[in-house]
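Input record, target 12 of the design panel.
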């Protein structure tokens, strides 16, 4: 599947520089930090205010139920500017799978370079951990 088929739009939902705190001793992004970046991108994708309402108003939250196909393709390094895309791949009942893509952007004349991907499954639960139907929430990007 080409990367063009995987993109929700030309815009990134979240961008950030790689800071020293994101790196390991070699100056490359520590592998677990990609999951933090994906979490932030997902929050921007759904809408920060919408998530706040979901948690505070509806007493619902998303939990990660599985991380599938996490792939590190190229290392991001200190000072790199990264862009992230998120796309819903599938949804059923209380669960959805989201494709997350990390790109190195802004490096001269080069087009964005795909550096990491992950398919992450989320479940919508109430405060007691009981699964809830996805139709109960209204987010910036419809699910």
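The sequence produced for target 12 reads:
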């Amino acid at each position: 599947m080409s990367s063009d088929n995987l993109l929700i739009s030309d815009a990134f939902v979240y961008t950030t520089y790689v800071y020293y705190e994101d790196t390991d001793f070699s100056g490359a992004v520590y592998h677990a930090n990609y999951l933090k970046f994906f979490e932030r991108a997902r929050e921007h994708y759904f809408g920060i205010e919408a998530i706040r309402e979901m948690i505070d108003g509806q007493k619902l939250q998303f939990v990660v139920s599985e991380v599938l196909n996490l792939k590190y393709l190229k290392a991001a390094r200190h000072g790199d500017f990264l862009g992230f895309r998120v796309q819903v791949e599938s949804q059923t009942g209380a669960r959805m799978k989201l494709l997350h893509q990390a790109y190195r952007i802004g490096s001269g004349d080069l087009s964005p370079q795909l550096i990491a991907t992950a398919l992450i499954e989320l479940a919508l639960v109430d405060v007691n951990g009981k699964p809830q139907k996805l139709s109960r929430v209204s987010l910036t990007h419809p699910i």
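The domain at 3-136 is CATH 3.10.129.10 (Thiol Ester Dehydrase; Chain A).
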